[in-house]
Amino acid sequence: MLNYEINPALLQPFLPKGTELDTWNGKHYISVVGLLFQNTRLYGVPVPFHRDFEEINLRFYVRREVAGEVRRGVVFIKEIVPKPAITLVARAFYNENYVTLPTSHCIYRDKGGLSVSYEWRQSDFAHSLFVRAEGAPAEIQDNTEEEFIAEHYWGYTVQRDGGTLEYEVEHPRWRIWRIDNARLKCDVEKIYGSQFAKYIGANPDSALLAEGSPVIVRRGIRI
């Protein structure tokens, strides 16, 4: 998770109805996230040749209050996956902005730590992100930037008619590494739009690596 402080005005056009922008110490963040799906199932059924795949997404952070409960969630601006069928299903069920591009990843362990990279190709340009983790992962502490970035259990998506779909994401609290060695190689204007090029650069404001876990994405409901 490579995180960048951003002008909140740029996020307003992507904000789902019924949500508001969330902040950490008054700062608005946008994140480039690489993740690996493994043993994926759709309604409990594995789909041949679509169980293990990379995803690279661009997301920001929102909140919604329901009967006194604050639901902290994310909104995805773009999600990149390697298989057209995944894009088709995600667009059909959630109206998420998935696109299909060739992707790959590398996880390398040595005595000093762990290196993780993701790559996605667009025409003749290879975009990539990289982090280097040292030592062992740690529990996320309450009321920290790490908690703000990593701990979200709701997703929100703008629908075609302007409404909002809310869906719950279930997973245990992740352990993470705080990363000091991270970099992004990306033609931001080409892949995400010129409005983000000023804010998303080679060196993020902060970076995290999460162990991951089993995850359940619940069916969405209209709000």
What's the SSE blueprint?
Blueprint: E1 2-5, E2 20-21, E3 29-37, E4 41-42, E5 45-46, E6 53-66, E7 69-81, H1 84-94, E8 98-100, E9 103-110, E10 113-122, E11 125-134, E12 138-139, H2 145-150, E13 154-158, E14 164-170, E15 175-179, E16 181-185, H3 188-191, E17 206-210, E18 216-217, E19 221-222
Parallel strand pairs: 7-8, 7-13
Antiparallel strand pairs: 1-3, 1-17, 2-6, 3-6, 4-5, 6-7, 9-10, 10-11, 11-16, 12-15, 13-14, 14-18, 14-19, 15-17
Key attributes of the depicted protein:
3 helices, 223 residues, 49% strand, mainly beta
Task: Determine the N-to-C terminus distance.
Answer: 28 Å
Q: What's the shape?
A: globular
Q: If you average the pLDDT, what whole number results?
A: 92
The major sheet is characterized as: 13 strands, mixed
Description:
It is built from three helices and 19 strands. The longest helix has 11 residues, at 84-94. It has 223 residues and is mostly beta strands. It is globular. The mean pLDDT is 92. The strands form three sheets. Strands 1, 2, 3, 6, 7, 8, 12, 13, 14, 15, 17, 18 and 19 form a 13-stranded mixed β-sheet that branches. It starts with a strand and ends with a strand. Strand 10 and strand 11 form a beta hairpin.
Summarize this structure briefly.
The protein is mostly beta strands and 223 residues long.
